[in-house]
Amino acid sequence: MGQIISLGVLQSAVELGLVYALVALALFLSYSMLNVCDLSTDGCFTLGCAVGAIVALAGHPFLAIPAAMGAGVLSGFVTAQLQTRFGVESLLAGIIVNTGLYTINILVMGKVTLNLNSTTTLFTMAKVAFGGGYYKLLLALLFVVAVVAVLLWFLGTRLGLSIRATGDNASMVRASSINPAVTVTVGLCVSGALTALAGCLIGEYNKTCDINMGTGMVTIALASLIIGETIFGRKSIGWRAVGVVLGSVLYRIVVAIALRLNMPASALKLVSAVIVAVAIALPTIRAKAAFYRKKRAALAARKERKAC
Fold first, then answer.
1. Among residues 51, 11, 18, which one has the least CA distance to residue 192?
2. Domains of the chain (ranges plus CATH)?
3. What does the mean pLDDT of the chain come to?
4. What's the angle, vertex CA 45, arms to CA 160 and CA 42, rounded to 5?
5. Within 10 Å of residue 174's Cβ, how many Cβ atoms?
6. Fewer Cβ atoms within 10 Å of its own Cβ: the N or the C terminal residue of the chain?
7. Where is 159: in which H helix or E strand?
8. Residue 6: which region, alpha, beta or left (left: phi > 0; alpha: psi -120 to 50)?
9. What's the pTM value of the predicted model, to 2 decimals?
10. End-to-end CA distance of the chain
């Protein structure tokens, strides 16, 4: 392993994997639990970074977190209203919001790039608090553990169970006197808050915010989600959430190895697409392989009976 990737590169991959796991958890809530395909993730991620960077530049690195999450809630709320109040399909609603967020993000930032090198961030404060070379890893792990714990608690509440039920069967939920519009709205607002939180942390991690930094975020989150569910299975909600986090970390490690093998950065999108395709197709490939093994065994048994 050390010959392919150094310890420092591996640590950076794990750090990024933990932060990007927040986006995967957001997709876990909206896509896996609520059964809504939200394509506003790219713009919402950049929105969280932009709002967080502006607040941090104003000298409030702590307030950057709730400010970014609040912006993400607004993004999720608009997406939900388009779906529930105006009858726009989820895919189209996400595309509409994502397109509009590009302009909003520029207005928030004031320009296409913000530099945070001379600004105090949560990570610079963590360096003073924790010391050593693992302060970024500890801070990212702290956020992920807190988010997973709160998310699992939320999904176990009556509202969280209603959200999960809406994803399974909206008609049944409606028949139980629960308004699916409310559950979809709450689910997308929480999902937007997690996505924006990830964007804010990435901006403070990299000490920069770029208008195009959210491009392809849906693909990355989907890859992490599918890798986690494919490798670790669909068991309890807690185990699935942990699998999503580990899937995000594994994805970043694969990307780090690809870069280590001198793969051009322009090919990373292709790597992401291949990872997603393989992860999605893997269960089907396994099922077909098992079917053909049983078929060959049955044919072999039939030949043996004829020979007898």
1. 51
2. 7-268 (1.10.3470)
3. 90
4. 100
5. 13
6. C
7. helix 158-168
8. beta
9. 0.90
10. 53
